[in-house]
Amino acid sequence: MISSKKNLFIFAMLLSLLASCATRAPGQLKQKSNTEKKAELYYDYGTNALVAKDYTKALTNLKKAVSIIDDDSRFHNNLGMAYFFKGDYKKAIHHLNESIDLDEKNSDAKNNLASVYFDKGEYEKAEKLYRVVLKDLEYAKQFRVYYNLGLLAKRKNKINQATAFFRKAVELNKTYCPAQYELGLQAYQSHNYHQASTYFQNAYMGSCGNNPAPYYQEAVSLFNLGEDAKALLKFKEIIEKFPTSKEAILANRKIKTLSVNSYRKNQRKILESKMRRGTPSLNQHNGPAFEPAHDKERSPKPVKALQF
Known about the structure:
By secondary structure, the protein is mainly α. It has a domain at 38-140: Tetratricopeptide repeat domain (Serine Threonine Protein Phosphatase 5, Tetratricopeptide repeat), CATH 1.25.40. It is 63% helix and 0% strand. It has helices at residues 34-51, 55-68, 73-85, 89-102, 107-120, 123-134, 142-155, 159-172, 177-189, 193-203, 212-224, 228-241, 246-276. α2 packs antiparallel against α3 (73-85) and α3 (73-85) packs parallel to α5. The protein is elongated. It starts with 33 loop residues before the first helix and ends in a 32-residue tail after the last helix.
């Protein structure tokens, strides 16, 4: 089961935001004027709103920052992302290009621009720009670029290539949960449930712990491994931690399935015991018949994710 809503793993967007405390060029280390301080204040407000997903507030403040100082690459990068989240691709691309023109070493802006192209379906432009970013050997977020390339390869149905990219992302940053989650999905779809459960467990560590999707996928993997007791505990954990989520509803269904399975096992043991004592065989049993549970949610659907 994979929800279609935009969340961390379905439409995972990592904002390559240049934080206000980011390192500045030597020429920028001078004492700021009151005008510069005002622009920085709007930039900080806008950036914080962008991270909080208040895109209207972000757009308002970042536009004010750019209106005061229009030659700061950071300002244009984040303003471009605000326009993107408001659905204005044209202005998003304009400001991201402006950010790159102002600072050709701004790999965050290049990664963001590539991801906008990805979202528009312009895959060749996206891949070309992602690979340009990989040439920046000092870029500390290369693991995110490999993750994006993995998503791109997956979109093109190049599964082996996607796997290689996701593994490279994890190699560079073992705590990068979106890549762990994608590897879990691929292992699950290959029926390697043991490996899938490990990846899904890694996927809810750290910053991804507030998303129910990897918890649920781990539980379903355990269920398919026949580890009913562990699966049951995980389903109960989902219900407790995320009571209003879709995963909690699905977990309740799985618990009912596990209860039926447990009843069937007990009935089978009783019948086998009777058979050993010479009582009628299983084929002669007149008790209730149990059909196999058909769970349409067991196999996950392809994830649609894009990270910024």
